[in-house]
Design goal:
363 residues; alpha+beta; Creatine Amidinohydrolase, Chain A, domain 1; Creatine Amidinohydrolase; 2 domains; six-stranded mixed beta sheet; three-stranded antiparallel beta sheet; 10 helices; 36% helix; 22% strand
Length: 363
């Protein structure tokens, strides 16, 4: 989607919400709307103006990266600039991103407006950002960047298999994964990697520890990288040494559930209906209480973004949405299995962007 079209849609949202302006402070949303990749900027949008506000450090960068925006260098900070701008533009109702503004900042802005107008000044309106709705549908260019991040992640999985052996710590594995992907061109890790072995594999978010791998253990590897600002997310569970019949049964079951969801997910389902594809199957097997997290989440400029594939999600899936599919079952004190892929919703199903092997791997 072109920048001008994104701005047009935000202005349409302003009209629908009867707002005169929108102040965007969340840097991910700033980047999506403007293309600015620095670390300090705010967007101010009215029916007539589209301003990118930043400081001396980033003025030239912003002018180079954001030709569709009027770049304003803040001399005294946003808090002093805002009342003057609202007065100049005649704004009476101003939307701010409720999820991304602190209570302290909100109170400060209200106080600044009170100092200028008394009780009759502009109203600040806590709003759900329209930008996060726009971000749910990825363009072909965005999908390509996510795909490239997924390719690096798949390559890292193949690389790490030769590194996994008894005596290596989970932390060493996480470091090796990150180092490999950075060498291959990744901008950084997508999140704190989960490397959870043995009994720790029952921790859905078992961030890598100093625990050393041991023979006969399951190892859950949940990791990803950033490429061009966009994220990837992959989970595989592998095994060291001989596996028990129980481990084989659990692994095969999770793999079958994950395959079922990838085959049946499609546009028109809500996030809750997609989640039920896995949850109902796991419950029918008697393991419903062993699957306590959601089926998946959106992936893009953030590792967790809309839409959610959860029991509470009413969002309807549409082509161009990129989500994870990650069922798992966990047995405290014993271990767990999770298999996760990043997929893009298509016109009639989904296309899987991560391609690391899903068959049981015994090292």
């Amino acid at each position: 989607m072109e920048v001008k079209e994104k701005i047009r849609r935000v202005r349409q949202w302003l009209e629908e919400k009867e707002l005169d302006a929108l102040l965007l402070t969340h840097m991910v949303n700033v980047r999506y709307l403007s293309g600015f990749t620095g670390t300090a900027a705010v967007l101010y949008i009215t029916k007539d103006r589209a301003l990118l506000l930043t400081d001396f450090r980033y003025t030239e960068q912003a002018r180079s990266q954001c030709p569709d925006w009027e770049v304003v260098e803040l001399k005294n900070g946003l808090d002093e600039w805002l009342p003057e701008a609202l007065q100049e533009d005649g704004c009476r109702r101003v939307g701010v991103e409720a999820a991304h503004v602190t209570v302290a900042r909100w109170r400060l802005w209200k106080e600044k407006l009170r100092q200028r107008w008394g009780s009759g000044g502009p109203e600040l309106v806590a709003a759900e950002s329209p930008v996060e709705e726009l971000r749910m549908i990825k363009s072909e260019e965005e999908i390509e960047l996510i795909q490239r991040a997924c390719v690096l992640t798949d390559e890292a999985f193949q690389h790490i298999l030769s590194f996994l052996r008894p005596g290596v710590s989970e932390r060493e594995i996480a470091l090796e994964l990150e180092f490999f992907m950075r060498k291959k061109g990744a901008e950084g890790r997508a999140f704190d990697f989960i490397v959870a072995s043995g009994p720790r594999s029952a921790l859905p978010h078992g961030v890598a520890s100093e625990k050393k791998l041991a023979a006969g253990e399951a190892v859950v590897l949940d990791f990803g990288c950033i490429y061009g600002g966009y994220h990837s997310d992959l989970t595989r569970t592998v095994f060291l040494g001989p596996v028990s019949a129980e481990q084989q049964q659990i692994y095969d079951f999770v793999r079958q559930v994950q395959e079922k969801v990838r085959q049946e997910i499609k546009p028109g389902l809500t996030g809750a209906q997609a989640d039920a594809l896995a949850r109902d199957a796991i419950a029918a097997a008697g393991w419903g209480d062993r699957f306590g997290h959601s089926l998946g989440h959106g992936v893009g400029l953030e590792i967790h973004e809309k839409p959610s594939l959860s029991v509470r999600s009413e969002t309807v899936l549409r082509p161009g949405m990129v989500v994870t599919i990650e069922p798992g079952v966990y047995f405290p004190g014993k271990g767990g299995v999770r298999i996760e892929d990043t997929v893009v919703i298509t016109s009639d199903g989904c296309r899987t962007l991560t391609t690391a092997p899903r068959e049981m791997i015994i090292l």
